[in-house]
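Hypothesis: this fold can be encoded by more than one sequence.
Test: take the structure tokens below, design a sequence, compare later.
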């Protein structure tokens, strides 16, 4: 009887010990899951970047984006404004953009041109293996993830509730950042991604 009781307790505890599993919209991650780390991703600044480089930041905002998607382009000014308002060398928040599309218009040379033209005040990284997007369950551009101090996912989904040029009435990412900095629960922890372009995943041998 004691062994049976112990087994039942272990089974009941298992979901809380594991990650939250697939979310409502994301098939891979859910709020509360540990955020996948990246390392050695080349940026438009010519440097290699890792999530561990941001260990002093309280909050990290990750956006999967690209050069070629019209919706992603429309959102660039809002991402720049987000970084200008909350991120920076001495800020508690970092914004990181990651592109995994491998077409010519999305290759690193084109990314450098785009970053210079738009004066991106954040790291713009390239992952030609596309693994980091797969691990985050990202499927659209742009798609956002807010990571807390312990690098768990606090929010996943769209930047806000209205695509440009409409003005948003609810800014999901900014609300998640503010809650994280205040040590509060993120009320809207998951939304569907913006109605952008699907990430152009290359077929894998085991697909």
């Amino acid at each position: 009887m004691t062994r049976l009781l112990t087994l039942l307790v272990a089974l009941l505890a298992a979901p809380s010990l594991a990650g939250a599993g697939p979310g409502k919209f994301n098939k891979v991650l859910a709020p509360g899951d540990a955020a996948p780390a990246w390392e050695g991703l080349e940026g438009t600044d010519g440097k290699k970047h890792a999530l561990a480089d941001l260990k002093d930041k309280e909050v990290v905002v990750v956006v999967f984006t690209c050069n070629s998607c019209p919706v992603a382009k429309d959102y660039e000014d809002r991402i720049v404004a987000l970084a200008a308002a909350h991120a920076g060398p001495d800020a508690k928040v970092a914004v990181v953009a990651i592109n995994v599309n491998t077409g010519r218009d999305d290759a690193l040379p084109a990314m450098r041109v785009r970053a210079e033209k738009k004066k991106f005040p954040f790291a713009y990284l390239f992952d030609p293996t596309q693994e980091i997007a797969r691990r985050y369950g990202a499927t659209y551009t742009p798609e956002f993830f807010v990571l807390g101090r312990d690098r768990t996912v606090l929010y996943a989904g769209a930047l806000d509730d209205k695509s440009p040029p409409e003005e948003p009435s609810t800014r999901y990412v900014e609300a998640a950042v503010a809650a994280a900095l205040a040590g509060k629960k993120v009320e809207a922890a998951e939304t569907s991604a913006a109605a952008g372009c699907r990430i152009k995943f290359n077929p894998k041998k085991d697909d």
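Strands lie at 41-43, 48-49, 59-64, 93-99, 123-126, 140-141, 143-147, 153-157, 197-198. Confidence is low (pLDDT under 50) at residues 1-20.
Hypothesis status: open.
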